[in-house]
Amino acid sequence: MAEKTGPFQKVVVDQDICIGCGACVSVCPYQALELDENGKARLIWDLCKDDFSCVPVCPVNCIWKTSEAPDSAKGKANWYRFSKPLSDAEKKEFEDWKAKYKIAWAPA
Ligand code: SF4
Ligand code: SF4
């Protein structure tokens, strides 16, 4: 299968609703989700390639395509990180993504 190319819309997780079941982590074919230090699902932003296998498996419906996510979830902190320092091209994609989807928080 050919590697998918971006830009990708990614997904948003509401960690306040997440019960840490790990289902989304298990089905992600790109290892773009993990359980964080609090046992909540966290997106690894640069690894997500928009196949959206994670969305339907969540038992509490707290993970969405970014285009369909509530603003309340987008405004929370710590629900995503990067796997590595972003390249210049990735930085531009990230800034475009934040602006397009009105993402209010970014990792330090
Ligand atoms: S959309 Fe796909 S690649 Fe992205 S986190 Fe969900 S399962 Fe993983
Ligand atoms: S499937 Fe839903 S509840 Fe389970 S870890 Fe993922 S986001 Fe949290």
TrEMBL record:
Pfam families: Fer4_21. One of its GO terms (molecular function) is 4 iron, 4 sulfur cluster binding. Residues 9-38 form the 4Fe-4S ferredoxin-type domain. Keywords: 4Fe-4S, Iron, Iron-sulfur, Metal-binding. This is 4Fe-4S ferredoxin iron-sulfur binding domain protein. It comes from Vulcanisaeta distributa (strain DSM 14429 / JCM 11212 / NBRC 100878 / IC-017).
